[in-house]
């Protein structure tokens, strides 16, 4: 579970990346291994990036996210609705990034559980302040890194559908696919369902 992971700032180079995630999930289901996927993505520019450096920066994060999915989650990601695919992506981000999982669990979950649909700037600021107090690693990050992370977190919330509007901070609940919910409960990942504001 995410708690065993170290806090990291890798999200600064890897936002929601839904399109990229989908490409890699599809290749993995076709039987390609990680090395083959890496080569294919780079040689065929599957992410359609203009700059090769961006590709090399984001690919490790996408591969890491895809590696936490089993075949059922991979299939749900590709075969169900766009919303379900985005929820699977959100789950994979939480599963591979402790800072983001805890943000979802400590900030978003609490708000949705108490029917408070407003994410304010101070909520994000307080979260980072408390993490810096708890962890030496987080405390050592530069202001620029923290600023970037705050932006990426908001962008992920926006693209996943949890944040309706960045300006107003309006939150909304995800409508989770029943099959996805059942599967996550079955594999013991109910904490992630709760972190998304579902019960």
From TrEMBL:
Pfam family, one: BrxA
Natural source organism: Paenibacillus glycinis
Name of this protein: DUF1819 family protein
InterPro entries found in the cross-reference section: BrxA, BrxA_sf
Source lineage: Bacteria, Bacillati, Bacillota, Bacilli, Bacillales
Domain of life: Bacteria
């Amino acid at each position: 579970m995410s708690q065993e992971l170290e806090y990291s700032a890798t999200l600064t180079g890897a936002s929601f990346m839904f399109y990229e995630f989908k490409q890699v999930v599809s290749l993995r289901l076709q039987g390609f291994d990680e090395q083959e996927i890496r080569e294919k993505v780079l040689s065929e520019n599957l992410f359609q990036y203009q700059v090769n450096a961006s590709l090399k920066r984001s690919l490790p994060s996408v591969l890491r996210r895809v590696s936490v999915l089993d075949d059922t989650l991979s299939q749900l990601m590709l075969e169900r609705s766009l919303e379900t695919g985005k929820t699977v992506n959100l789950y994979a981000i939480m599963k591979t990034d402790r800072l983001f999982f805890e943000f979802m669990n400590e900030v978003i979950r609490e708000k949705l559980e108490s029917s408070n649909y407003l994410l304010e700037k101070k909520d994000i600021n307080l979260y980072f302040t408390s993490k810096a107090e708890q962890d030496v690693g987080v405390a050592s990050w530069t202001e620029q890194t923290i600023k970037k992370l705050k932006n990426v977190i908001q962008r992920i919330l926006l693209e996943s559908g949890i944040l309706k509007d960045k300006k107003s901070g309006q939150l909304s609940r995800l409508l989770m696919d029943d099959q996805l919910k059942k599967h996550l409960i079955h594999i013991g990942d109910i904490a992630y369902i709760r972190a998304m504001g579902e019960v």
